[in-house]
Amino acid sequence: MIHIERIDTLAEFASLREEWNDLLAASGSESIHLRHEWLYTWAVHFLAKKDLLVLRLCEGNDTIGFAPLQVRTIRLRGMLPYRQVLFLGDPESDFSDFIVTRHREQALRAIFARLRSRLTWGEMLFHNISDTSPNLYALKDILVRESAIVREQTKCYYIDTQAVTWEQYYATTSKSFVQQDLRRLHNHLRDKNWEVVESTLQDISREIETIQFLHSCSQARKARGSYYASDRYRRFIAAMMEELKKFGEIRLFYLLLDKKPIAFVLGFHFRKIFYYWNIGFDSAHQKLSPSKVLLAEVIQRCFHSGVNEFNFMRGDSDYKTRWTKQFRSNFQIRWLNERGFYGFFNQYRSHSGQTSRAEQPQLEPA
Known about the structure:
30% strand; Aminopeptidase
């Protein structure tokens, strides 16, 4: 029989690192954004202590998994407090899941029974469950019976760097967007002093300053702000980079022009997969398309350095389809509470047309 214990302090969560990562590796759900190092660092920087909701799944004296969750209170239309149950790491994590090593369906049922009986919530909203998740079939079977909505949320494009050579892969990319444009760009760069380098990550604070500048420049072109403008986000990134560099799991590349960085790619290297996470460039060099040149160089290095996959992570951005047609899907599960006050309120909202069960409502932070 499966029983559940709640982990509700950061100190206790911190102590789980080795056990957490061992179970994650055995669960079939392993990804960089489910690693203890990522989730704990995220919780320290973004989560109110009372909102931690990590559940330990036990069979007898054995731990067989964890449910990495959080409670978030938002305000609908700026007024009514509304409690959501989300995956820990949301919205920064690109991949989320439950960590279960055996008795999968029984364990998942135990999680939802616990949440239903011990917690007050308006909805459970689980983002970015990969279609490769060993839990997805059981989650659909369990929650659709409860009138939950399971839908494709976004695509995650990737390049299989094992199946073919770099030259064979490159021939499949967009002739105009990739091949012809890169040929043109390299002609422009031919007489310039440029190179691609990988940072040694010796001075993280200095790297953050450089990344912030380049990301802000490229976002300003589209009249968008950079999340690096947030002090809290920068502190999170710095702490995360310090932690992951101990394991060689964070990688930072620059395109240098006359020894000055004009573009960056920040990614993760985990289990022979390169996860492409952030990119930015100095808009003063926009005509050189430095981010495209750098991206091509990083992908090529992955082919030549024993990486099995280059993963673009979540997002349906059109440019990704110019580099590859291969993708997996991330799914969202949304379960509206049909009991008590929240049940009445959710029913009212559905009937009044304020929200669709298949859509995430327009929410404002509490």
